[in-house]
Amino acid sequence: MDLHLRESKIDGELAYEGGFLKVQRDRVALPDGKVTVREYIKHPGAVVILPLLDDGSVLLERQFRYPLERVFIEFPAGKIDPGEAPLDCAKRELLEETGYTASDWQFVCTIHNAIAYSDEHLDLFVARGLVAGERQLDDGEFLDTFTASVPQILEWVRTGAISDVKTVIGAFWLDKLTSGSWKPA
């Protein structure tokens, strides 16, 4: 299926290797037989946690993001370490960034947030049964946590106060999950 749309790798090379990201440069054959170059970021994958407190409020973060030089409202999230299961990563990141642990975890979906230039994927999880504790921020990590209602989060999405794609998608999922109109597949 869709064979008339597929591109085929001819050869490739690592164009750049940083401490976290890698840039791959591949020569590919297009469906019409022409050859072109595709450059993309190789990413290990990440998780996003949708932390739902017992009172129905949601735990969020405010964090400065250097590439865009501003503070963003986001859900807790983090990079999957080599050999780490996504759920284990979600549990680790929730504790590290917020101090919370959760007794109930539910996989929601996988999203691909930058398909034109990255192989990154993000696995979204809802965390319930939250218990507050001591957060364990990574060295060099600075963020504030706060709570908001699902309607407030959706209003921030509508007005552009939330523009981070993982948080926008997570907000829509939380709205559907908490209303009972959607269930994860």
Describe this structure in words.
The chain is of the alpha+beta class. The protein has 3 helices and 10 strands. Strand 1 and strand 2 form a beta hairpin.
Name of the CATH first level of the largest domain: Alpha Beta
Q: What is the CATH architecture assignment of the largest domain? A: Alpha-Beta Complex
Query: Structural class given helices, strands, pairing?
Result: alpha+beta
CA-based shape: globular
The count of strands amounts to 10
CATH fold label of the largest domain = Nucleoside Triphosphate Pyrophosphohydrolase
Strand order of the largest sheet: 7-4-9-8
Distance from first to last alpha carbon: 23 Å
Task: Note the main attributes of this structure.
three-stranded antiparallel sheet, Nucleoside Triphosphate Pyrophosphohydrolase, 185 residues, single chain, globular, 40% strand, alpha+beta
Secondary structure layout plus pairing:
Blueprint: E1 8-17, E2 22-29, E3 35-42, E4 46-51, E5 58-65, E6 70-74, E7 77-79, H1 86-98, E8 101-111, E9 122-131, E10 144-148, H2 150-159, H3 165-179
Parallel strand pairs: 4-9
Antiparallel strand pairs: 1-2, 2-3, 4-7, 5-6, 5-10, 8-9
InterPro entries: NUDIX_hydrolase-like_dom_sf (IPR015797), NUDIX_hydrolase_CS (IPR020084), NUDIX_hydrolase_dom (IPR000086)
Catalytic activity: GDP-alpha-D-mannose + H2O = alpha-D-mannose 1-phosphate + GMP + 2 H(+)
Family: Belongs to the Nudix hydrolase family. NudK subfamily.
